[in-house]
Amino acid sequence: MGRLKRWLITGVSGGLGLAIAQAALDRGDMVFGTVRSVAARNRFEELAPGRSVAAILDLSDASVEIREVVESAATALGNIDVLVNNAGYCLLGALEEISEAEVAHIMTVNFRAPLEIIRAALPYLRDTCGRIINISSMAALQGTTGLGLYCASKAALTSATETLDAELRPFGIRATSVEATALRTGFAGSGLTSAAGRLPQYSEMRAQRETAFSLSNNNQPNDPAEIAQHVLEHADSTNPPVHVALGIDAAVKAAAICQARTEEYISQQ
């Protein structure tokens, strides 16, 4: 494993972000996490006093605040070895229903803010030949009805990760996109936001999607703690993958999606 690491992780109030942070803390690492409330900050800092530090950060806010938080993380930790862009949310709604403001918000939180955090962290990651781990989703590989903007935001993050890995390898920095399947987190509950606009043409689709989310909430097949251990392994690897599919049958599902697209391309020749 080598020396202990210094982590900057966004969204450590719960879910996968907290699971990754806890796994890192359990082995003695230091973690600087971002949260959205004073109460969440206090809870996180109580996990391992002196090694778990948190700051309040609204990812939809100005980039100036993002850069200040990243600088605070580097100061508190002594530098940054691993950056995990985990924070994000899901927006439910047909593409026709979603307002311009809603489009801007989810793309900022799920894509533009992670990119800005990466830019701010790169001077520190160059010093440490660090790792960037972007928590994407299997949704990045295939559009899904009612989740078009979420899929698009994750696809953008995954695509940017590929480019980052190619651009940053000369500096010893590696980037990995984690394309995870359903986790037992708040994704289908508190992490789910619905578009304000509701067109009657999509009422049946919306009802089906809402029912599916309700039934899956807290019943997803994958344990965040197990996924977190895999994330640590990739952070420690000297040759991490650019893409990793995590979760039960994740690799099989990803392969099937890619195969179907390949067959579609070939059929047009």
UniProtKB/TrEMBL annotation:
Keyword Oxidoreductase: yes
GO molecular function ontology, one term from the record: oxidoreductase activity
Transmembrane segments: none
Ligase as UniProt keyword: no
Record keywords, A-Z: Oxidoreductase
Superkingdom assignment: Bacteria
Pfam families registered for this protein in UniProt: adh_short
Listed SUPFAM superfamilies: NAD(P)-binding Rossmann-fold domains
Family annotation (PANTHER family): SHORT CHAIN DEHYDROGENASE, SHORT-CHAIN DEHYDROGENASE_REDUCTASE FAMILY PROTEIN
Family: Belongs to the short-chain dehydrogenases/reductases (SDR) family.
Protein name, as recorded: SDR family NAD(P)-dependent oxidoreductase
Lineage: Bacteria, Pseudomonadati, Pseudomonadota, Alphaproteobacteria, Sphingomonadales
